[in-house]
Amino acid sequence: MAASSPPAQDSNLRGMAVSSISLVTFAVGANLVFLRMYVRMKRHATGWDDYTICIALALSLLGTVADVYQVANGAGRHINTLSPTQLSEFIKWTFVEGVEFVIGTCFVKISVCIFILRFINKTRRIMRYFIYILMGFLIVSTLGLVIALLAQCRPLKALYVLDIKGKCYSKNVSIAVAYVQAAINVFTDFTCAGLPFFVIRKLQMKRSLKIGLSIIMGLGILLEMNLGIIAASIATIRPLFVNLGPMVRVSSDNNGGPYSSSRPLVKNSKASKAGRNLGIVLNPMGTTKTMDTEISQDF
Q1: How far apart are CA 165 and CA 129, in angstroms?
Q2: DSSP string, 224-254
Q3: Which terminus of the chain has fewer Cβ atoms in its 10 Å neighbourhood, N or C?
Q4: Which residues pair with 288 in a beta bridge?
Q5: SS3 state of residue 119
Q6: What number of CA atoms fall less than 13 Å from residue 13's CA on the CB side?
Q7: Which helix (H) or strand (E) holds 276?
């Protein structure tokens, strides 16, 4: 019995769904990174974990654009309904997204590692050395995978331009590269996902919050690049929500609201002095913290 041919006009709902999810998760991630940078700059606490997550976000934008172009050129449709031009464009943007994903996830994981280093005391040398070695492995393995992807066809255009003849990897080599990439991803994913638990559990915060942050950061790294960006940024914007409590209290105490007057909120020098004696300091976001719990300021 002959196989049925695909319909002349194949539905592209699956491709549109994938593209929509990519756009939504990118938008959420971009907003969280913006809030993250706002909090960090207000606290004068920006670092390489922030810069690397911004690079990951820029790469995620490229991946989102690649998703849109893939859908526009037939992603989610039967291959027999695609024209040669569509097929060529689809393969090209799939390749672009593949390279972007390898590099982008590397930056997300490095950002998480650097973020965790903020909370590891310098006396815990074994843990710090382990994270440094992990970051080095991430960089070296990512460079190797990118080189392998770029070298899979000579010239590279032979990969996606159907009229160009070139020399490409054999099927066995392609499968071997895919297995190596998968093994590296599994190892680094689970290692980076587990790191937050070992660090967060020693911070001074509620147990439920520790569990929640560990799960969010861990699952974000394991699931998808945009979700990794979201998970890596959620913990850093908590001061914005913590700050809502004092704002509400001030608003209830002052009928005009916290911004109705240019006068400072702390007018009593004795009260200010007493606060200093108790070890209470005001941070740039306007919240208070004790010196004993300063290590958990990002949470």
Answers
A1: 48
A2: -HHHHHHHHHHGGGHHHHHTHHHHHHHHHHS
A3: N
A4: 282
A5: coil
A6: 1
A7: helix 269-277
Backbone conformation region of residue 257, classed left if phi is above 0, alpha if psi is from -120 to 50, else beta: left
Hey, which residues does 168 pair with through a beta bridge? Answer: 153
Q: Alpha carbon 23 to chain centroid distance?
A: 14
pTM of the predicted protein model: 0.74
Q: Name residues of the chain where pLDDT drops below 50.
A: 1-2, 8, 247-297
For residue 20, what are its two tokens?
A: 């929509």
Q: To 10 degrees, the CA torsion angle through 28, 29, 34, 36? A: 120
Distance CA 8, CA 80 (A): 9
Residues 6+ apart with CB under 8 A from 100: 59, 60, 62, 63, 66
Instruction: Determine phi and psi for 168, rounding to 5 degrees.
Output: -120, 170
Closest CA to 152 of 160, 162, 140: 160
For residue 125, the model assigns a pLDDT of 85
DSSP state of 296: G
| Residue of 214, 253, 247, 256 whose CA lies nearest to 231 | 214
CA gap 111, 204 in Å, rounded: 23
- Other beta carbons within 10 Å of 60: 28
Q: What is the Cα 160 distance to its own chain's centre?
A: 29
pLDDT digits (tens, 9 = 90+) for 59-98: 999 999 999 899 888 887 878 888 888 888 999 999 999 9
Asked if residue 284 lies in contact with residue 104, where contact means CB atoms within 8 angstroms, the answer is: no
